Amino acid sequence: MGGAELVNPDELRRLFPNASVDLLARNARQTPVVESNSRDATLGASEVQGRSSQSILVRVTSHRKKLLDEDNLCEKYHVDLCRYAGIISGDEAEKTKIEVRQFKIKKGGTEKTTIEIFQITQP
Questions:
Q1: Picking from 3-12, 13-22, 28-37, which range would have the lowest pLDDT averaged per residue?
Q2: Are strands 55-64 and 112-120 parallel, antiparallel or unpaired?
Q3: What is the pLDDT of residue 42?
């Protein structure tokens, strides 16, 4: 599979029923090409889809049956995945705040990790 393929908007809605209008609009044009080899190295300056001077907040929320030690939530892994996917352009300390939360779910509930990304407006 070389390059990006067009995606049918109805297929996107079927796969992602809770997707925002913005997500549908951005992805109806092309499907991102997933790299076959994940890596541990950082991204080079030319590998991201564009730098922004905006500050962002990345909130990683874990919903678990048994709460973990906070250092085991692996927020760095999730933030790096967002960088590799081109969702955020970087995670420099001066431009990016990373927040980690966790909630205990009731018996029978579904464990999940939610990643939210917000633009921080400067005063």
A1: 28-37
A2: antiparallel
A3: 56
In a domain, residue 4? The reply is yes
What is the domain range of residue 3? 1-35
**Range with the largest mean pLDDT of 28-42, 46-60, 69-83:** 69-83
**Number of C-beta neighbours around residue 47 at 10 A:** 11
Domain membership of residue 70 (yes or no) is yes
User: Would you say 104 and 67 are in contact if contact means Cβ atoms under 8 Å apart?
Assistant: yes
Q: What percent of the chain has pLDDT over 90?
A: 22
The number of domains in the chain is: 2
pLDDT above 80: residue 118: yes
Find out whether 28 and 14 touch, Cβ atoms under 8 Å. Answer: no
Cβ neighbours of residue 40 closer than 8 Å, sequence gap 6 or more: none
In a domain, 41, yes or no: no
118 and 74 assigned to the same domain? yes
Q: 96-104 and 55-64 as β-strands: parallel, antiparallel, unpaired? A: parallel
Residues 62, 13: one domain?
no
In a domain, 40, yes or no: no
Collapse the DSSP code of 47 into the 3-class scheme (helix H, G, I; strand E, B; otherwise coil) and give the result: helix
